[in-house]
Every structure is written in structure tokens, then in C-alpha cells.
């Protein structure tokens, strides 16, 4: 099927419907965030920024946001360091049991998160250990590690070994070679992996509901508990802010970076 | 962590001139942190979970170390769990098929279009991955609810006088699940469609195939790995989810994940929650294992590393 036929036109219609399906609900939430009504639904009662002001004074939400950012930063840092080491080992070194280890590192992607979450909780129960923030971070590292490893691995296997060999033949130690040759070449993949880990952690709710220590709320669990009563304009405003925070800002950043490299290059 | 592992003594010895034994050790040292983490947080917990499923529930969140088969017999005799399993399979299969039906045409158009700003279309397909899952799920309340967009529209147009009950039923759960999974499906299909050599399609056309025939005999078979990877991923993710059902479903629309969560948080039964998790893990493990055996998991990894 090429672009000319009637079949193609049908496909384009389906595609547009898919885009509408993906984004119309988000647009609705964004629209309702500015609704003057005190209920979280239609009809629209004039434009207001009131709900954003209410949100700015909601201490619980702000605390949850702080927790989420801290959690995601710690996860991204640990997951990326751990992921780089793993990818280097899996791509650049030969040892027995490698394919088995590769499968082990991919396991969290294909395991139901609920089972993964419950397993860790039972283990803690068995050891009579309390839940803690540190364990929550490590749990998030487990969930994001496979993705970081995949991204870094893909980049690393595309890099020729000759740069590293050249550095070593010129007398660099393995650590120097890694720091001054491999790591800079991995740069984009490291940043992509780190961002991915950050997003996965920031967004996670399924496992977090099991793992969070008593009294600690992340932003997603906070939104979830706000939904228990009913949907309010405040939740819509929070949704709107999160959509902007997680899409528009990274897009502007990427767009800006692209613009400046073009201007300079 | 990485810096520490690298400055460790065995690694300092590893250089190109050393023998392979040293290289093996290097690899192991680099893998240590992640293997320890996955071992302690994934492998050991599975074993613990299996053990707990044979322990006695003493009520009120207490567990007695007396071995019993009670949890397993309850799992197989209580119709509540059978309904849960059946609903999980039904919703997951339905959502997966819908994802394929919607996702394939969309990936095809994005991969084949000669539209100048193709990257915008692509970017939009990747965007949902960045947007919070809970917000995406919640947004359906704004669409399907009694005060939602669709009901308001129908009322304004005088099609209905009372709001239609579109939320808190199985259809709403399915719609939410499709919304959450569709990007995964599209990503996987798009990756394999992009990898097809366009000359093959042209060759089929010059040899007299109609566009439809060329699609059926060249494009579709070559994009199968992506489609299959998408199907597996969507099914596994759908069957393991519980928040979509918790937010968009009614009291009767529970998935297996909800049963696990309730066994732990409402019934306070650790052994029952463990039993339910083991069975979910086993069922999905079998599906994934069969898939890995006959098709291979490589394509799924390829999708994610894009």
C-alpha cells in the first residue's frame, strides 16, 4: 500500500483516531484544570487559575513532589552507575554463564510488578525488617535497571573497540581508558538511560504502593489517594502540571539543544 | 559504586595482555552490584514467596510456620479466584487484541508516510511513555464519568437526558488498559517496520503483486517479530496490572493484581497473597517461556533500546 490508494486514506483515518484516543483524554484533563466550577467535571464555568493557587498551598502535595524527585534522582544515579558496569561487562567481557546473566538482568521487565513487589515485602516480613526509603530506592533501581542496561548495551555494541585498544596500547590503564574514552563515547546513552530511570521511578505507583514506608507518599500515590474521594479540579490542575513537567520541559530542552548545535555547527 | 568496583584490585590487573582468566574475573566484578541487587530483590524473594505459600495463615496478619496445603486448595476451590483469573485473561486478551488492531495501522502509517515532518508523528507516539501513568488513567474519568466530556456532549445535543454509566465497568478497564499499552505495541511494530528494506516491497510490486498482496506477502511477514513482541509485552503488562481496574473498574471488575493487593491489605493474609503471586508469576512465566522458546525475546529488547 502506497500513499496513493484508497486503502491508504483509510489507514490515515485510523491513525488519526489513534492519536485522538491517546491525547484527547489528556487534553480534557488539561481543559478542566482551568474550569471555574468547584466540581471536577463539565460543564465549564469560566476560566480560572484558582486551582493552581490552591495546589501551590497544598503542603501534602508539595511534600509528595519533593519525595518523588529525591527518589527519582537517587534511582537514576544508582541505576545508571550500576547499568553502565553491567553493560560493559555484558558487551566487553567474556565469561561462562553470560547468556543466563543477560536473561536475569531482563527479568524485571517481563515479571508482573505486583508479584515482584509482594516478593520483596514478604522477604522483609521474613527478616522482620521495616520498610524504608532506602529499600524503596533500591526497589526502583531494580525496576529501572533493565532499561538502562538495554540502552547502554545497544550503544556500546555499536562502538568499535579500536579507540579503547588505541588508548590501552598508548599506556592507559583500564580505568583511564574507561573514563577518558569509553564513557565520553557512551555519553548520549548514559544521559538517555539516566532520564529513563528517572521517569520510571518518578512515574511508578504499582510497586511503590507496596514498598513505601508508612506515612511516605510519592506524587503518584498521593494523586491516587486524592482520587479515592472523587475527581476534583485540584487533581486536574495537578495532572495538567505533571503533563507539562514531563513533556513540554524535556521537549523544549531537547529542541533548544538541537537549535544551538545547529546554530553553532 | 562503579568507581569502587573498578578500582578494586582484580580489575587493576586486567589489561589486554593478560590471559582470559583475568578478563573473566573483571566481568564478574563489574556485574557484582547488579547481580547482588537482582539476587536479593528478585530471586530470593521469589523463593521466599514460594515458601510462604505453604505456611499457615494465623489471621490478623500473623503467619504460623506450620506447613499446609490450605492456601493452594483455597486457590483452586474458591470460585472468587477463578473469576479473578478468568476476568484477568479476558481483559488482557481483549486489550492486547485491540492494541494490535489499532497499533498496526498507526505504526504502518508512521513508518511508510512521506509526510515531511514525520518526526513530529513519531515524537507524539513516544510522548505517552513520558506522561505519568496515573494521570493518563485518571484522565479517563474526565472523559467517561457522569460529568465527563462524552456525557456532557450527549446531554447538550439532547441525545440522552441521564448520564450513561460508562465508568466503573469492565469496558472502562479495557479502555484504560489499551490506553496504557498502545504505545508499547506501536513502538514494537514500528521498530520492525522501519527495519524492512523498502526495495523488497518495490520488487514485489514490479513482479506484479497488487499493493495488498505485496503487503500480505512481504511487509506483514517481515513485521511479524515486532507484532509478536508487542502482543507478548501487552499481554504480560495487562495481566500484571491492578491500578487500572482499581481506578476505572467497579467493585466486581477485579484483576489478579487486585486480588493480591486485597489479600495483603484487606484480608491481611501473607500466605494467600504469596500463593496468588506465585500462580500469576507461573502463568505469565509459562507464556513468556513458550514465547522465548519458539520466537525468542531479542525483538523485545530491540524495541526498548531504540
Describe the structure.
- The complex is a heterodimer of chains A (265) and B (306).
- Chain A is mainly alpha-helical and 265 residues long.
- Chain A has a domain at 53-232: Orthogonal Bundle (MetI-like fold), CATH 1.10.3720.
- Chain A has helices spanning 6-32, 50-56, 59-92, 98-110, 113-127, 133-157, 162-169, 174-203, 206-211, 219-227, 233-264.
- In chain A, helix 3 packs across helix 6, helix 3 crosses helix 10 and helix 6 (133-157) packs across helix 8 (174-203).
- The longest helix of chain A has 34 residues, at 59-92.
- Chain A is globular.
- The two termini of chain A are 39 Å apart.
- Chain B has 306 residues and is mainly alpha-helical.
- Chain B has two domains: 2-52, no CATH class; 71-304, MetI-like (MetI-like fold, Orthogonal Bundle).
- Chain B is built from 15 helices and two strands.
- In chain B, a hairpin with a 2-residue loop joins strand 1 and strand 2 (62-67).
- In chain B, helix 3 (20-52) packs across helix 14 (270-294) and helix 5 packs antiparallel against helix 11 (211-240).
- The longest helix of chain B is centred in the first third of the chain and has 34 residues, at 79-112.
- Chain B is globular and about 75 Å long.
- The relative contact order of chain B is 0.12.
- At the A-B interface, helix 1, helix 3, helix 4, helix 5 and helix 6 of A face helix 1, helix 3, helix 5, helix 6 and helix 7 of B.
